[in-house]
Amino acid sequence: MSNEREAGPPLVQSVDRALSILEILARRRGAGVTEIGKELGVHKSTAFRLLAALESRGFVEQTQDRGSYRLGLGVVRLAGAVAAQLDVSREGLAACERLAAELGETVNIAIRDSDRAVNVTQSRGAASIASHDWVGRQTPLHATSSGKILLAFAPAQVRAAVLGDLRPLERFTAATLTGEAELTAELDRAVVAGWACTAEEYEVGLNAVAAPIRGADGSVVAALSVSGPAYRMDRASFPEVAKLVILAADEVSSRMGHVS
């Protein structure tokens, strides 16, 4: 009879144990297979298999003393991704404030969180609608300008998951794009033009234009958008507004280490 502790179905149990190993190594600054197995309450061979899987993805590595493990660079990459999300909020604030002052509208920076966009920075211009506080708010990728940018430049599997037929896209207004073909065409246009827009697609009376913010490696890490009432920021103004939004987004990209 095995005395290994139970933690639900096999796959969930393995994930739980793998995460526990990372916590053990973070706490101890390194540990051997026997020590890890004992703390997990599993056989040494089980601990070794879990460590091998984590090592293959770079999340742990063996020290010079073979059989002893420590956290690997894979963990650093994940931490770096989180840091980049925090950095873009800090590095983008000045550009957002200048653009908000220039246009008089609300300027936001959003990052992608799975199939949603999350606003992390907001600056309001003198003419902006004060009732809209977007910071921390999750918004749909398919119905907002920032979301379209984040979706347009997202990995293919993310696009497929959002646009696929796993679930229908939610319609927020009569103008919301919910068809896969029309939305795909819109995203492709955004990639070519370098900006995306929404015209009353998420809220009636609200229009927006967004452009991508890139990290040091050139990947799109966030979107910078300006939004305003449709009567003041109409479709005809989008191209001119987009030029200013792109300039602001490029400024933030530069501060994030991107060289165009």
TrEMBL record:
Task: Give the transmembrane region(s).
Answer: none
Q: Which keywords does this chain's UniProt record carry?
A: DNA-binding, Transcription, Transcription regulation
Pinpoint the HTH iclR-type domain residues.
Answer: 12-73
Q: Which residues form the IclR-ED domain?
A: 74-258
Q: Which PROSITE patterns match?
A: HTH_ICLR, ICLR_ED
Read off the Pfam families from this record. Answer: HTH_IclR, IclR_C
| Record-given protein name | IclR family transcriptional regulator
Task: Give the originating organism.
Answer: Actinoplanes sandaracinus
